[in-house]
Structure formats: structure tokens, C-alpha cells
What does this fold into?
Amino acid sequence: MAKKKVFISFDFDNDKASKESMIGQAKLPESPFEVSDFSLKEPASEKDWLDKARAAIARSEVFIVMLGPKTKKAPGVLKEVKLANELKKPKFQIIGYKDGSEDWGVPDAGRVYRWNWDNLKKLLA
It folds into this structure.
């Protein structure tokens, strides 16, 4: 069975570890998804960044927001959510921390779920 192509949106300044953990989970043999890491490795102009983000989101099948305590105020995440909505991508949010809260959810970014294997398998099957 082909794995779903996933774009992960995250607060670059605060939640890189959560994103890296999700990428690690995607590498497990039984994982129903794969993550293409489109994070820019070098500074880029706003327009270049938006163009690259739009292209990456367009190539994905599912858009996931990894939630941390500051995610809903992260400008990059808000712009990526807007792009995902414009592109009509299926989307949901994963609480990236054990003690996290649904209150961390980003408006218009889909339903919020706890991060566990059962949820990921159901959501990405």
C-alpha cells in the first residue's frame, strides 16, 4: 500500500523536536505515511518562502499542524494553514506534547487529536 505524502507545519522557533519525532515515526516500516521535509535550510525572501511552501503543500496529500504552546501565533504556520485551505488539502492537528492542550489549536487548521499511533493510523490510512 502506498504511503500518504504529508506536509508538517510547525512553529520553527519552538517545536522542531516535535517535527523531527514525527519524521522519525514516518520512517517506521508499518507507518502509513511519509514526510517530505520542505523546511528551508537557509534564509529566503518572504515571496520565495511562500512560493516554496505553496509548491510543497500542493504536492502533499495531507496537511498536519504539530501543536506546541505557541503554534497558534506562529506567523509561518498561519500562512501555511491559509495555503492549505486555498489548496483544499485535508488537514488535522496533532498535540505535540504529552501535557499539551486542545486550546493550542490553530483556527481553520482542522480537528485536534492527541499524538498516538492509533490516531495516526486512522487519520492517515
Observations:
- The chain has one domain: 4-124.
- The chain has a mean pLDDT of 89.
- The domain at 4-124 is CATH 3.40.50.450 (Rossmann fold).
